[in-house]
Amino acid sequence: MSDRLHVATRKGLFELERRNGAWDVVDAQFLGDPISAVLADGEVVYAALDLGHFGAKLWRRDGDGRWNELPAPSFPPQPEDGSDDPHPWSLGKIWVIEPGGVAGRLWAGTMPGGLFRSDDGGESWSLNEPLWRMPDRRKWVGVAGGEQPGIGSVLVDPRNPQDIRIGVSTAGVWATTDTGASWRLINRGMYAEYLPPELREDPISQDVHRLSRCAARPEVMWCQHHNGVFRSEDAGANWREVSAIRPAKFGFAVAAHPHDPDTAWFVPAIKDERRIPVDGKVVVARTRDAGRSFEVLTRGLPQRHAYDLVWRHALDVDGSGERLAFGSTSGGLWISENGGDSWIMPEARLPPIAAVRFASR
Amino acid sequence: MPTVGFTRALGRFLAAPFLTVEAATVREAFGAVFGSRSTLRGYILDDQGALRRHIAVYVNGQPVRDRVGLSDPVGPSDEIYVFQALSGG
Q: I need a labelling partner for A103 at 20 to 30 A (CA). Which of A179, A228, A305, B38 fits?
């Protein structure tokens, strides 16, 4: 079980530790700076900064407790004939950092849709050129209209680090089985009822808010999609809608149980035009039967006039499947130690939360 | 020789000293400063070498015209100053 939680917010990175049964903030770094992603791998912590003026940055805290800036992922020079590319060849922000399953390897999913790889613990990065130079990449569209497309999920198969699935807002689910040398758009079965009829089931038009896979059964994946919840039992190729989700099917975050392929958690909200909790109640939806039914978990969560929205990366489960945490756009932070049955709120009023992440060990 | 100075706001992240360089354009001046300071370069320029959207560069109190190519000329006694454009939040 993880006793350490990292919280990336609009105004800094906060670290919580479980001591004597309570969770307390024990460290605050980069106060005032937006943190867009965090990864804690034992004592080593990676933090992606999204500085309004100075761009996207990457920092690492080593075992000695010191923070050092690393080179941020960077795009190669744009070709002269590339002016019709709808997306900039320049790093917008680092949206997610994931371990690559090999010592030293990391993957960074970014806006405007570049996937970057490091094999030296973040000391250097290279753009995955096969994905970026693929003609279909120009069909990716931005998040929330004006923004850039973003790779918000990078799922490395725990059995085989060459086998990776990425989820893109907005461009569906892409797969590689050769560590990124080639990519295929694989998702079938997702649909988006808000799109024009001819695009409703178009795989590349699917807004995959977030993907999560069961570590013990990696072929089982869950998706919180812009249009609802979907589940796959073949590593992201075929999806069926999970229509039992309640109290709403819209949301951003999903966490799959690390051992039980039938269990997953979501934080639903009124969809799309409003993006607030249903009836002003913050709830977590949990299924334990592969999505056939859901429990709506409320113990310890605000049930009156709460308007917290939970972003893609702001829900996490630890390696035991018992401890969960989620954070909201209002700075609410809740932790459960019993699989979501009940929740506690640490003593802190935090800035808007982009991501929460348990330390991996 | 022209001088290049940076907002003190950068000091939270890294060293950004005032420097005197040999240069006839803003791009040449930046090239001299960033040659051995690649991290600082990334705070000011985007991946393609253009000025970041929310960075302002003034020469003797006037904003540079060419934010992409940085071709604005600079003379021996000119002062180039780099700072953050205002934004909210």
A: B38
- Is a pLDDT exceeding 50 seen at residue B84? yes
**Tokens standing for A34?**
């937006």
Q: How many CA atoms lie within 13 A of A214 on its CB side?
A: 21
**CB atoms < 10 A from the CB of A1, how many?**
12
pLDDT tens figures, A170-202: 999 999 999 999 999 999 999 999 899 999 999
Residue A344 has pLDDT above 50, yes or no: yes
Q: Which of B47, B52, B89 sits opposite A54 (nearest CB)?
A: B52
Domains parsed from chain B with CATH numbers: 3-84 (3.10.20.30)
- CA separation for the pair A11, A35 (Å, rounded): 7
Contact A69 B43 (CB under 8 A): no
pLDDT tens sequence across A104-113: 999 999 999 9
Q: What is the pLDDT of residues A62-105, one digit of tens each?
A: 999 999 999 999 999 999 877 789 999 999 999 999 999 999 99
Q: A149 vs chain B: nearest CA distance in angstroms? A: 17
* A326: helix, strand or coil: strand
Q: Residue A52: which of B14, B38, B54 has the nearest Cβ?
A: B54
Measured between CA atoms, the residue of chain A closest to residue B41 is: A54
A99 C-beta neighbours (distance < 10 Å), count: 17
Which sign, positive or negative, has the C-alpha torsion A74, A77, A79, A82? positive
Per-residue pLDDT at A256 exceeds 60:
yes
Cβ atoms of residues A323 and A337 within 8 Å: yes
Whether B42 and chain A come into contact, CB under 8 Å, resolves to yes
A4-77+88-358: CATH topology: Methylamine Dehydrogenase; Chain H (2.130.10)
Q: Give every CB contact of residue A238 below 8 A, 6+ residues apart in sequence.
A: A188, A189, A232
